[in-house]
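Input.
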Amino acid sequence: MQRKNLPPADFRHVYEFHLRFGDIDSQGHVNNVKFLGYLEDARLEMFHGDPVRKGEQPVRGMVISRHEIDYRLPLLPTVYPIRVETWVTEARAASFKLAYEVRDDENVYATATSTLVAFDVEGNRLRRWTPEEREFIGRYMPPSDG
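Output.
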């Protein structure tokens, strides 16, 4: 059964990982701040690790301008892998929005969104996406239904 408002699997990046002992807080579940680290790891794989392994140029020069996280269920210690599924929901000339689910096969533990903006590191200013960056970002943005 497809979850509501989710893109087809072809447009989702999947990052899988195992929980670490240090992720668990005194309440016996994953500390909420660790979720930001999971999102960061997933983005690094999506925009740097995976392209490099495929012989492609990684996407560089972007910064986060906004994060929003909704915690759905406590993430308890498990030996099973957890994954972050990520996709693009909106793309503009100098920014785009990512949506995420932190989940396993049974449960969604958190949903999140991030806004990323193109940034010229040397010039210390915002910029527009290059055509190559727009093409890469578009791989993760499903066609609209409308």
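Residues 32-53 form the longest helix (22 residues).
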